[in-house]
Amino acid sequence: MSDEQIRNHPSVLRVEKELENLGLKKEIKVLSETARTAQEAADALGIHVGQVASSIIFRLPSGAPLLVITSGRHRVNTEKVANLLGVEKLFRADADFVKNATGISIGGVSPFGWEPNTDLIPLPAVKLLDKDLAVYEVLWAAAGHTHAVFPLTYQELLNFSGASEAEVAD
């Protein structure tokens, strides 16, 4: 895909519009290589993998989506997060669940610009933000496509994502 095709992808346009609506003037950067993983994003941007704010989707026992925005250097401790939320366990979200919950395909899920299919996913998402991201001056998050990312601060992510701070990894 060309830069123009990526920039005009419906999910990227939704993320860009939501960022504007929130007053966050962020330029979406199109990467020449895919950024399906935190390490791929970090390599493409020339940054520390911990600066990547990965949006990971799980399914709660209620059927609601759970967004965990975590540092790319972490693996989410699902038992710890389940205990924090007072649920028995977290379920892995398959590609269909992620797409229905966010309107964005796996690898490009952003903390912003969601368009959930409320007929299939009627419950609102629960959102958690990894406290360990606060150590970085600049974070990078997916912008609705595996080739699109944008920079922001921890405080911006906390203020505008609707996520609660939490310890999500060991």
Write a compact overview of the structure shown:
The chain has six helices and eight strands. It has helices spanning 3-7, 10-21, 38-45, 78-85, 95-102, 154-161, and strands spanning 29-30, 52-59, 65-71, 91-92, 126-130, 139-145, 148-152, 164-166.
Helix proportion of residues, in percent? Answer: 25-40%
Q: What sort of overall outline do the alpha carbons produce when their principal axes are compared?
A: globular
Share in β-strands:
15-25%
- Uncertain segments are none
Annotation field: number of helices? 6
The strand count comes to: 8
Description:
It is a single chain. The chain is an alpha/beta fold. Helix content is 29%, strand content 23%. It is built from six helices and eight strands; from the N terminus they run ααβαββαβαβββαβ. It has helices at residues 3-7, 10-21, 38-45, 78-85, 95-102, 154-161, and strands at residues 29-30, 52-59, 65-71, 91-92, 126-130, 139-145, 148-152, 164-166. Strands 1, 2, 3, 4, 5, 6, 7 and 8 form an eight-stranded mixed β-sheet that branches. β2 (52-59) and β3 (65-71) form a beta hairpin. The longest helix has 12 residues, at 10-21. It is globular and about 45 Å long.
